[in-house]
Each structure stands twice: as C-alpha cells, then as structure tokens.
Automatic annotation (TrEMBL):
Enzyme class: oxidoreductase
Protein name, per record: Glycerol-3-phosphate dehydrogenase
PANTHER family according to UniProt: GLYCEROL-3-PHOSPHATE DEHYDROGENASE (PTHR11985), GLYCEROL-3-PHOSPHATE DEHYDROGENASE, MITOCHONDRIAL (PTHR11985:SF15)
Domain Alpha-glycerophosphate oxidase C-terminal: from-to ranges: 380-477
Length: 490
C-alpha cells in the first residue's frame, strides 16, 4: 500500500496550493479531487487578484494588506494568466461620499508595497463616455485579473513537477484514523478503490469541508462554513475600452463589469445564502434581473436577458463569523488542526480567496512542521508558475510569431496568454498548420487537445472548453459537437 506524508482532499486552488507547497519542501504528497481540478468554486470566481477594496468598509485591514501584497507576488509569478486591470468606480455622491472613496483608495494604495501597478486617481468623464450623463466623475485604481481555472491547473502542474501525485476524478470516500497514520480509501470515477496511508490529512474540500468533517471523519468542529452563492453573466462587450467598472448599488453592494475574452463583458456578482448541494448551484432569474438592473442604471447601452451568452454560479465556502449579512462575512481563512498528541493530525481549511491561496498554502504547510520535521523551507514566493518564465507578454508573443509564422497570430496570442513559454511544448516539431491535426474551430487543433489531456489532466469536452481554455464562449454548437465526438472516440 502506498504511503504519503500528506494527503490533500480537494483539487481547488487551496488544495493544489497546499500540495505544491508541500511537495516543493520535499514531502511525499497525494492530492485527490472528486471531479475535474478547479471545477467547483475555483472556476466560478470574479477572477480578480485583488486586495478587496470593499473589505475596507468592514475594517478588514489585515486581510486587505495581505491580499494586496500577494497581488504583487502573483502578478510576477504568473504573468501569462494574471494581468493588471484598471478599474473605474463611477461616483454617485448619494451612495458614497467622495471623501470616503478617496480615503479608501489612499489606504488601498498604501496598505502594501505597490511595485507594478499605478496609483489611484480621480478622472472627469467626457463624451463619448459609456456611462450615463449624470456620472461626471470616476475614481480609478488598479488590481489584477486571473484566469482562475488555469491558475488551478498551473499550480497542480507545479505540484506534479515537484513530485506530487495529482489524482483528479478520484474521491476520498473513507478515512480511518489509525494509531500513527490515516488509512484512506480513494474511489476513482469508474468505482475502482485504492487504499493508501498518509501521515497527515488535509481537508481542503471548499464548500464540502463541513460535510467531509462530519460524514468522513465524524468530527465536530469549532468553526463553521457559511455557503454563499455568487453568480455571473457574460454578455457581448458593453464598452470597447479596456477598463473594468466597479458599480455601487443602492443596497450597499458592488457589482463588477470586467472585460472578458476580447469580445465579452463579465458581470457579477451576487451574494445569496445557499443551503443546497454545492454541486447543483445555478443562477436564478432574480440574480439575472439584479445584475442587469445594476448595469443598466450606469451604462448608456441597455442590456437584457436575451443578451446573455453564458452564466455561471459558485458557492463561497466562507468562514462563518456570525455576521447577519452575507456580504459582511469575512473573506479571510482559518485553520483547524485536530488530533490528540499521539494521533495523526487533520488540518482543515476554512474560507480563503483565490488571491491569498499561496500565502494560505504556505501557512498551512508551516503549521504541519511539528508533525513532518524533515520538511524544507517555504519556497513559493519567488517561484514562477509553469510557463511564466518570460519578461513581457508582448515579447513572448512576437517570439511566437517569428518562430511559428505559419500559425494564425490570434491563436499564438491566445497560447501566450494561456500557456506562456509552454506554448513551445505544444508546438514542438511542428512545421506547418497541417502538423497540428484536426481543426475543431476557433483555432483549437488536435495538438492542443492532446496536450491538455496529456499534461493538464483534461478528459472531457467541458474540461477543455470551459476550464483549460474559454473556447466554449467562441465555438459554435457544431464545432463543440465535433470536439465532443472526437473526445468520445479517443
Ligand atoms: C462568486 C464568487 C466570486 C469570487 N471572486 C473572487 C475573486 O474575484 N478573487 C478571489 O481572490 N476570490 C474570489 N472568490 C473566492 C474563491 O473563488 C474561493 O475562495 C476559492 O476558489 C476556494 O477554493 P477552494 O479550493 O477552497 O474550494 P473549491 O475550489 O470549491 O475546491 C474544493 C474541491 O474539493 C473537492 N472535494 C470535496 N470533497 C471531496 C472528496 N471527498 N474527495 C475529493 N475531492 C473532494 C471538490 O470537488 C472541489 O473541487 C469568489 C468566490 C465566488 C463564489
């Protein structure tokens, strides 16, 4: 029976982050994910690497300053999938006075060292402005944008490169605490069972963290998770500039409008208490109406439900801090370490954000030092994620254009943004477009599909179209069917 130092349950951003950190410190690690990597909350986020401007209103200075510092680290470590994004906050004096916004932005500029992003500013709006005429002033500030699902895949690759076993479509179906190790049963998608041993168990099951504790480990916890649904809609681009918008609503909440995949705008999010099965979360008609009405109260262009080309929902696994309103619940994380002195420990992760995953992972593994004393030192702060070893995206793009002049530049640009320098691994030995194999449409060739299956654990059409790439937004139904038929056959 295989034996590991660490077994991580959950292949979202927190589980993969912990697996990568631990493997890089010399520990033997297995990560199991019941479905595809990142399929749950970690691919349904607003895709921001941000300090969280609005958390300042809840006095979360520690969280904001940590997240702002991580923003710099991640912009540097994953420049292909994380990019700076300039936000405009339209000023409506009856919602938040200018002095309050300026104070918040001053703190946002100064709570952590800012190297790569410009400071905030106040700008007068002139015609042609996409915003309604009563908005004559906006406040600008910068944050980061991330392809969240790709981040999970890259962190999983980082873990694998350091020796971790990554097992998607593998559920942790039973655990037993033995005297000096955990006996864990893993069940694959086909029902095959594999028993393994682990010295330490990590519960990074996101929205299922409580269920795993109660039904898997039969353990009561002092901490609780509050499930809060958040939904997004995608519409054809409503503003041709490169700005994102942060819109204040009359209920005190904010809604983002983010440039998305060149031709689209991503609009979200909502905060609705959620009681059901996290796997079945779906956007409601009320959420759609809410998002449309906030956007229509700011923009000259009017959007309707018929404009929506795609939507997605996720469940935030928030650390319950007894706040009444879902929007006020902390976005910070907490660990719970359980097990008596002579028992194998269980570390459970409550809460967290995509932005702080690396920091959370490092702190989680640090916490296990007393049980796994042979582990090495923290290392991820200066570690580039796979494919991130280039100086500028523009330089990488022109390098790709020169080296592969026979391939459409729009495809190469997408490769650069998704795979960074790993684009060369996809294209190696190819001399002409025919070498890329079957074309499914919108620049997706068999060569890329094979790469995603071989190196990024993709196994279904959905994995490829919605998580490893966002080509689902661009490919028509018959192109998607062609891919589906190919995947079924292969
Ligand atoms: C609407 C919304 C917007 C957000 N926006 C942002 C944002 O802009 N920026 C930001 O930083 N954060 C954002 N977040 C927060 C962020 O997405 C989450 O904090 C993060 O994704 C949680 O990751 P996780 O790994 O804990 O959970 P998940 O990604 O849900 O991963 C947990 C995994 O555990 C697996 N699992 C559960 N039980 C088992 C088992 N028994 N065996 C094997 N696997 C199991 C599940 O299948 C799942 O894949 C947002 C969240 C939401 C919902």
């Amino acid at each position: 029976m295989d034996e590991f130092d660490l077994l991580v349950v959950g292949g979202g951003i927190n589980g993969t982050g912990i697996a990568a950190d631990a493997a890089g410190r010399g520990l033997s690690v297995l990560l199991c994910e019941q479905k595809d990597l990142g399929w749950a909350t970690s691919s349904s986020s607003s895709k921001l690497i941000h300090g969280g401007l609005r958390y300042l209103e809840h006095y979360e200075f520690r969280l904001v300053s940590h997240a702002l510092a991580e923003r710099e680290v991640l912009l540097k470590n994953a420049p292909h999938i994380i990019r700076p994004l300039r936000f405009r906050l339209p000023h409506r004096p009856h919602l938040r006075p200018a002095w309050l916004i300026r104070t918040g932005l001053f703190l946002y500029d100064h709570l952590a060292k800012r190297v790569s992003l410009p400071p905030s500013a106040r700008v007068r709006m002139h015609d042609p402005s996409p915003l309604l005429n009563d908005v004559d002033t906006c406040f600008e500030y910068s944050d980061g944008w991330v392809d969240d699902a790709r981040l999970v895949s890259l962190v999983a690759q980082q873990a694998r490169d350091k020796g971790a076993q990554i097992c998607p479509r593998t559920r942790c179906s039973a655990v037993q605490r033995q005297s000096d190790h955990w006996l864990v049963e893993l069940t694959s998608g086909t029902g095959e069972k594999r028993p393994v041993k682990a010295k330490v168990l990590v519960n990074a099951a996101g929205p299922w963290v409580g269920r795993f504790l109660q039904q898997g480990v039969h353990q009561q916890s002092q901490n609780h998770i509050r499930l809060v649904q958040g939904s997004h809609i995608v519409v054809p681009r409503i503003d041709d500039q490169s700005y994102a918008y942060i819109l204040q609503h009359t209920d005190g909440r904010i809604v983002f409008v983010i440039p998305y995949e060149q031709h689209f705008s991503l609009i979200g999010t909502t905060e609705v208490e959620y009681q059901g099965d996290p796997a079945k979360v779906q956007i409601s008609a009320a959420e759609v109406d809410y998002l449309l009405s906030v956007v229509n109260s700011y923009f000259k262009i009017k959007i309707a439900a018929t404009d929506i080309v795609h939507s997605f929902s996720g469940v935030r696994p928030l650390l319950d801090d007894n706040q009444q309103q879902a929007g006020k619940v902390t976005r910070d994380y907490r660990f719970e370490l359980s097990g008596a002195k002579d028992q194998p420990p269980l570390l459970t992760v409550f809460g967290g954000k995509i932005t702080t995953y690396r920091r959370l992972a490092q702190a989680a593994v640090n916490k296990l030092g007393e049980f796994l004393p042979a582990m090495g030192r923290p290392w991820t702060a200066a570690a580039l994620l796979p494919g991130g070893d280039f100086t500028s995206l523009a330089a990488l793009q022109s390098e790709l254009w020169q080296r592969y002049p026979w391939l459409d530049r729009s495809v190469l640009d997408r490769y650069a943004r998704q795979y960074g320098t790993l684009s060369h691994r996809i294209l190696q030995d190819c001399q002409a477009v025919e070498d890329l194999g079957e074309h499914f449409g919108q620049g997706l060739y068999r060569r890329e599909v094979d790469y995603l299956c071989q190196y990024e654990w993709a196994s279904t059409t959905e994995d490829i179209l919605w998580r490893r790439t966002k080509l689902g937004l661009h490919m028509n139904q018959s192109q998607q069917l062609q891919l589906q038929r190919f995947m079924d056959k292969e």
